[in-house]
C-alpha cells in the first residue's frame, strides 16, 4: 500500500488522526510533556512519531498516542513536502529503518540463544512499544529503563489506550513480563536499580541502546558500556545492540548530542565486547526496501570510506549512524 494512502490524509494537508489521539485526556498528558520536560526526554516522542507515520512497515499500535498530535502533524508535513519535491529520502525513513534493524537483530539474537527464558533490557526506553508489538518476545522479560517522569506519563498514555473504546487492537503485553525501571543512566547505581527490579545477571540477555548513547557525555556513555560489558561476563549468552553517531553527526547538533564514535568496532573490543559488527543505514541488512532512489544520501555515504570526514561532491560533513551488534566473550569463543 502506498505510504500516502496509509497516512490517511484529509483534503487539507493535515493528517487525519484517530479520535483517541485528539481526546482531552491524551492532549492533557502531552501538554504536560510540552511544558514540563526538557528536550532530552522530549526526544522520545520523535521516534514514536516516525514509527506511527511509517506504520506501513512498522507495526506499532501505540506509536500515535505516544507521539501526540503535534509531533505527528509536524512530521507528516515534512514527509508530504519531501514526497511532493521528489526528495531522494523521505523524513523519518532513517528512524523506520533503525527500528526494523533493531527488531530483526533482536529476533536473531533470541533465536541464537536456542530457547529458554530471555531478558531484554531497553536502556533509554522512551516511547518504545516492543513489549506490545513483537510476538517473538513471549518468553522474554522486558526491562524498560528511563527517567521516572517519562515512565509515569508513558504509563498514563498507555492506560488511556487500554481504557478507550478505540482500543481496536485489543492491546496486551506480548512479552512474558514488562518491568519499568525508573533510573538515570548517569548515576552509577542504575545497574543496581535494574537488579533490584528483578534483572538476573546469569540469564541470557539482549541489551538495546537505541537512540540513547549520543545524548550522554563521553564519560557517562563509557560508564554505561563498561557496566554492560562487566554484566556480560556473568551471562552465558548476551548480545548488545546499539546505534552510534560518528563525530560529524554529533558536531552538527548544537550540544544536543555529545558522545560519538567513528570506530565502534575498535572501541567495543577494548572494553570487553566481541564479535562486533557494524552496519550503516542502506546496507543490505539495514535497508528494508525503503531507500528506493539509488542516489539517496545514505547510499552516497556508504560508498565513501569511513575514514573520510567530508563528502568531496558537495563539501558536506559525512554524518553517519552506525548500527552495531556485539556479543560477550564466551559466545565469541564458541563461534
Ligand atoms: C531518542 S529517545 C529514544 C527512545 C527509544 N529508545 C526509541 O528508540 O524510541 C532517548 C531516550 O533516552 C532517554 N534518556 C536520555 N538520557 C537518559 C538518562 N541519563 N537516563 C535514562 N534515560 C535517558 C530519554 O528520556 C529518551 O526517552
| Number of beta-strand segments | 7
Strand order in space, largest sheet: 3-2-1-4-5-7-6
The level of helicity is: 40-55%
Architecture per CATH nomenclature, i.e. the level-2 architecture of the largest domain:
3-Layer(aba) Sandwich
Secondary-structure content class: alpha/beta
What general form does the structure show? Answer: globular
Q: Terminal Cα separation, in Å?
A: 41 Å
Number of helices: 14
**Overall structural domain count:** 2
Order of helices and strands: HHHHHHEHEHEHEHEHHEHEH
Q: What is the third-level CATH name, the topology of the largest domain? A: Rossmann fold
Radius of gyration: 20 Å
Protein name: S-adenosyl-L-methionine-dependent methyltransferase
Keywords: Methyltransferase, Transferase
Family: Belongs to the UPF0677 family.
InterPro entries: Ppm1/Ppm2/Tcmp (IPR007213), SAM-dependent_MTases_sf (IPR029063), SAM_mthyl_Trfase_ML2640-like (IPR011610)
Topology:
Elements: H1 3-6, H2 24-36, H3 39-53, H4 63-67, H5 69-84, H6 93-112, E1 118-123, H7 130-133, E2 140-146, H8 148-163, E3 177-182, H9 190-196, E4 205-209, H10 218-232, E5 238-245, H11 247-251, H12 264-270, E6 274-280, H13 297-303, E7 321-327, H14 329-334
Helix pairs in contact: 2-8, 3-5
The chain binds S-adenosylmethionine.
S-adenosylmethionine is lined by residues 40-41, 43-44, 47, 124-128, 146-147, 150, 184-186, 210-212, 215.
Molecular structure report:
- The chain has helices at 3-6, 24-36, 39-53, 63-67, 69-84, 93-112, 130-133, 148-163, 190-196, 218-232, 247-251, 264-270, 297-303, 329-334, and strands at residues 118-123, 140-146, 177-182, 205-209, 238-245, 274-280, 321-327.
- It starts with a helix and ends with a helix.
- It folds into two domains: 3-84, no CATH class; 93-334, Vaccinia Virus protein VP39 (Rossmann fold).
- By secondary structure, the protein is α/β, with parallel strands linked by helices.
- The model is unreliable at 1-11 and 331-335 (pLDDT under 50).
- The radius of gyration is 20 Å and the shape is globular.
- Helix 2 (24-36) runs antiparallel to helix 8 (148-163) and helix 3 (39-53) crosses helix 5.
- Helix 10 links the parallel strand 4 (205-209) and strand 5.
- The longest helix is centred in the first third of the chain and has 20 residues, at 93-112.
- The chain has 14 helices and seven strands.
- Strands 3-2-1-4-5-7-6 form a seven-stranded mixed sheet, sandwiched between helices.
- It binds S-adenosylmethionine.
- Residues 40-41, 43-44, 47, 124-128, 146-147, 150, 184-186, 210-212, 215 line the site of S-adenosylmethionine.
- Belongs to the UPF0677 family.
- This is S-adenosyl-L-methionine-dependent methyltransferase.
- GO terms for molecular function: methyltransferase activity.
- InterPro entries: Ppm1/Ppm2/Tcmp (IPR007213), SAM-dependent_MTases_sf (IPR029063), SAM_mthyl_Trfase_ML2640-like (IPR011610).
- It comes from Carex littledalei.
